[in-house]
Amino acid sequence: MTSPPASRLQTFDLAGPAGRLEALLQEREGRDHTLAAVVCHPHPLYGGTLHNKVVHRAAGTMHALGAAVLRFNFRGAGGSEGTHDRGTGELEDARAALDFMRERYPDARRWLGGFSFGSWVAARLAAAEPDVERLILIAPPVRTQDFSVMRAWPKPKHVFHGTADEVARLADLEAEFPAWAEPRTLSRIEGASHFFDKKLGDLAKVMEEVLGPPAGHRASRTT
After folding, report:
1. Number of neighbouring beta carbons within 10 Å of residue 11
2. For the residues 177-204, what does the mean pLDDT come to?
3. 172-183 pLDDT, tens per residue?
4. Distance CA 116, CA 15 (A)
5. What's the CA gap between 216 and 200, in Å, rounded?
6. Which of 8, 52, 174, 192: CA 20 to 30 A from 31?
7. What is the CATH T-level fold of the domain 7-211, as seen in this structure?
8. Are 101 and 36 in contact (CB under 8 A)?
9. Cα maximum dimension of the chain
């Protein structure tokens, strides 16, 4: 039996609209991926970077399902140039990351994902980019950010949320979620806080069940 191509993690500097963007790309040797994903990190003013443990686990899970996955630092975070722009410039940073994946994998299907603040950026970018086919939102802060674009976006959107989230309360999401366009799924991670402390394994397991395998070919379902 032939072994699958080896996985590799590469550091990149992407050309962003406000300067260099620090990024990490996890892919298989040979670059024959049919699926490419970008994952956005939580709020940079509160310590969010591409190395956040939830972002790391989400990216690793998507990669295990067959995707080439790019994580990057928004402007002003980590080694990225520029300064925080309250979500406006960060949207353009994410678009630059998506453009990089388009160029590297021109024939691949495209997913977007994000955690907390990053889910807000990812949602707005997905709504503006017709070739994004699936959206993965982890702990979206619907009370503090505007997710109204999800009410009309007609593609699969999968939300993963902790029942004990103390930052983005599940009750706020449950009040907003029914207004979002189908298809949509909401997976509740029992006992998980906003940062999924001691629940990262549970998050990964549920993501695998909802999204794969192989990535993107299983029908959507609600858990």
Report:
1. 9
2. 98
3. 999 999 999 999
4. 24
5. 21
6. 52
7. Rossmann fold (3.40.50)
8. yes
9. 51
Residue type, 68: A
Token pair, residue 75, equals 């402007």
Tokens 């949207």 map to which residue? Answer: 91
- Higher local confidence (pLDDT), 1 or 221: 1
Gap between the Cα atoms of 221 and 210, Å rounded: 7
Q: Which residues pair with 35 in a beta bridge?
A: 109
CA distance 111 to 67: 9
Tokens of 42: 């939580």
- Residue 39 C-alpha from the chain's centroid: 3
Q: Is 132 left (phi over 0), alpha (psi -120 to 50) or beta?
A: beta
Inter-CA distances, 139 with 28, 123, 185, Å: 28, 12, 13
* Whether 210 contacts 158, CB under 8 Å: yes
Kindly tell me if the per-residue pLDDT of 206 is higher than 50: yes
Q: Give me the chain's average pLDDT, please.
A: 93
Residue range 24-50: mean pLDDT, rounded = 93
Task: Pick the closest to residue 160 from 207, 216, 126 (CA basis).
Answer: 207
Q: How is residue 108 annotated by DSSP?
A: S
Q: Any idea which residue has 């029914």 for tokens?
A: 178
Tokens representing 81 are 């140039």
- 191 C-beta neighbours (distance < 10 Å), count: 13
For 135, list phi and psi in degrees, rounded to 5.
Answer: -130, 130
Summarised one tens digit per residue, pLDDT across range 44-62 is 999 999 999 999 999 999 9
How confident is the model over 186-193, as a mean pLDDT? 98
